[in-house]
Design goal:
This protein is of the alpha+beta class. Helix 2 runs antiparallel to helix 3, helix 3 packs antiparallel against helix 4 and helix 7 packs antiparallel against helix 8.
């Protein structure tokens, strides 16, 4: 029998074995040329099966070979390699250790694959010891040394990461999403609306990719069904992203006849009947002759992140972003920059509902080997923080794909071929560690309409961080005036709705302290600009019993200045009101002083005093019950009324 060395496949996993110098020492007892002949013949058959990728059949014959010759060390080493290919690292480590215990000198040649299987179990300290022992062999060739040093670096990273990020009781427990979502086919690339009521994902059956959807009702996911409309075809529809409001679907279409390149980005819109329109190519501004994929739309629909291998990047595949203008046109994409992108490949971006937390995968940032998942956070100046590795066991020594996070900031969904898979890749959910969570994000939705006619009004909705005066998001309602705005917790927001020819609407939302349990519905009647129309300016702030304007008021005040600038003949009255706490005379004086503080600001910005009137009403004209704090807060208000148009 011709001797066959232990066989290992999955090139990316054990490429270092090519060219390794296999040595034989007189200190070893095992002689591979003297194994039982019957066992050797069975082993040869297993070799052929493993070569053809028939791993289960090969394992059966390796087991038979061991029965014929229980001291056949090469069988343990080969079976260990097959188990590693199958990601059964527990069985792989057991076989490596059996071989090492039987003949440490002979089996020590395979300390590097042994270390990788140890790392597959998260045993990084033992893996580092094994690879150090491997690298101590003075007869290794350059390729083996490079492979060993590469793995050594990843193990050292893993050990250091664990020291700097103590788990503090965190348990990684992915839960299969069940038979309603998963099947014997492959499921991957999940996407979720902000309210968690609908999930869309990719299912691949016989190499054909289509989109399926499921609805979450009464605590359960409905049986997944192909999405309605004209999206699914006999071509491949791959990575997709549903908008937070559930009305847009942007996806990757490959080899479409009208495509710009091999894979392009397409968009479809939800119809009133519930299906989807025929997809539209995003066009040559966004798509190129190269590869575009993995879209992720920001919650305000203004930014579209995606992966591409187009020229001008930092590596093979980079993350890019295109911006949507107020007219609906997409800008020429910009590279996300060298903080996010590396000389390697970055992909599968996911921008969370907070519009500040970006998850993506990369093989260029430091990690556990192969492709890991990372998180970066948008800074105040619009730049990105240094990406953070999500850490073991979310990341492993194997490739990690896409990941999305629900609006609660902690519940994540991803595809995995876990032990309880229905078939290949399934969709799973798990809870993120505290340090890698996004901000919990609530939302407000409703309809903007004409106060007189009740007709829906397409309008601009703007959300501003009150403390920084920075615009968080600007979006357009749909043609019927419907809108949805996300509200990351931890901040106070000014909320404005604008449409030409109408008084703007203002509100504010405090996402600190006591938070609402669910989405807020705010339907907004806009008033035409005409004599007698009035609005409450809800983002004008004063300290208790004082009339000095707080800095947080400036965003709203500037809105009024813009209104007066756009309508130079407009004259307005600013009216101040208080609650009934304190003396009526004091309340009257305070309301007058506050109204004058507002008009004085307008005059300081160049508005003619003849167009301005200030009046105080004190505790008169309450609009709510003064017996409750909520009612008193509503009564403490500043109103704008149009005197002439």
């Amino acid at each position: 029998m011709k001797h066959l060395k232990p066989f290992f496949y999955k090139t990316a996993f054990l490429i270092f074995l090519t060219g390794i110098f296999y040595f034989t020492s007189y200190a070893q007892w095992y002689n591979p040329d003297k194994v039982n002949k019957k066992a050797g013949n069975i082993y040869a058959q297993a070799y052929e099966e493993a070569t053809d990728g028939k791993y289960n059949e090969a394992i059966v014959h390796l087991n038979e070979a061991l029965k014929a010759d229980p001291k056949f060390v090469d069988v343990y080493l080969s079976r260990a390699g097959i188990y590693a290919n199958l990601k059964n690292y527990t069985a792989s480590v057991a076989d490596f250790e059996t071989a090492l215990s039987m003949d440490k000198m002979y089996a020590s040649t395979y300390l590097l694959p042994y270390s990788i299987s140890l790392a597959g179990l998260g045993e990084f300290v033992k893996a580092l010891q094994a690879v150090d022992s491997f690298l101590s062999n003075p007869t290794l060739n350059k390729q083996s040394i490079n492979a060993g040093n590469y793995r050594k670096k990843t193990y050292e990273f893993a050990i250091d990461f664990a020291k700097k990020h103590p788990s503090a009781g965190y348990i990684f427990a992915p839960k299969n999403m069940g038979d309603s979502i998963n099947s014997t086919a492959l499921e991957y690339f999940p996407s979720l609306t902000i309210d968690g009521s609908k999930m869309i994902f990719t299912r691949r059956i016989n190499n054909d990719e289509d989109f399926y959807e499921s609805d979450y009702t009464n605590g359960h996911w409905s049986k997944a069904r192909p999405v309605g409309g004209k999206i699914n075809t006999n071509l491949n529809e791959g990575a997709q992203n549903i908008s937070q409001d559930g009305n847009w679907l942007i996806f990757t279409g490959c080899n479409y006849p009208e495509g710009q390149g091999s894979c392009d980005l397409y968009i479809a819109y939800k119809t009133k009947a519930g299906g989807w329109t025929e997809p539209e190519n995003l066009g040559p501004i966004v798509n190129t002759d190269f590869w575009e994929s993995s879209p992720s739309l920001s919650p305000d629909k203004r930014d579209l992140y995606f992966a591409s291998d187009r020229p001008g990047g930092y590596g093979g595949k980079d993350i890019w972003v295109t911006h949507r203008s107020i007219t609906g046109k997409w800008s020429r994409p910009e590279n996300a920059g060298p903080t996010i992108n590396t000389k390697g490949d970055e992909g599968c971006p996911f921008i969370h509902a907070d519009n500040e937390t970006l998850y993506f995968n990369s093989n260029g940032h430091e990690g556990y080997g192969m492709t890991d998942l990372f998180v970066a956070r948008k800074q105040a100046d619009g730049s990105w923080s240094e990406p953070e590795n999500l850490g073991y066991p979310i990341n492993t020594i194997d490739d990690e794909g896409s990941l999305i996070v629900s609006s609660d900031g902690k519940t994540s969904y991803y595809a995995s071929d876990g032990a309880d898979t229905r078939g290949g890749l399934d969709l799973y959910s798990f809870t993120l560690r505290d340090d890698i969570r996004a901000q919990k994000t609530l939302w407000v939705k409703g309809k903007v309409y004409d106060k007189k006619t009740n007709a829906g009004l397409p309008s601009t909705v703007e959300l501003t961080d009150i403390s920084t005066r920075k615009t968080v998001s600007t979006l357009q309602t749909d043609e019927e005036g419907q809108y949805l705005v996300t509200l990351p917790v931890g901040k106070d927001y000014a909320f404005n709705v604008n449409r030409k020819g109408y008084l703007f609407y203002s509100d504010n939302f405090s996402m600190q302290g006591n938070l609402p349990d669910s989405a807020m519905v705010v339907n907004i009647p806009l008033q035409p600009i005409e004599k007698g129309a009035s609005i409450v300016l809800k983002n004008i702030f004063f300290d208790v019993n004082k009339f000095n304007l707080k800095p947080e008021s400036l965003t709203e005040l500037d809105k009024v200045i813009q209104l007066l600038t756009d309508h130079p003949k407009l004259s307005i009255q600013i009216s101040g009101f208080t609650d009934n706490v304190g003396k009526p005379s004091d309340n009257m004086l305070l309301s007058i002083q506050r109204a004058k503080a507002v008009t004085n600001y307008f005059q300081s910005k160049g508005i003619d005093s003849k167009r301005l009137s200030a009046k105080g009403f004190g505790e008169q004209k309450p609009i709510a019950d003064n017996q409750t704090e909520t009612g008193r807060a509503m009564n403490r208000r500043t109103e704008l009324s149009i005197l002439s148009d």
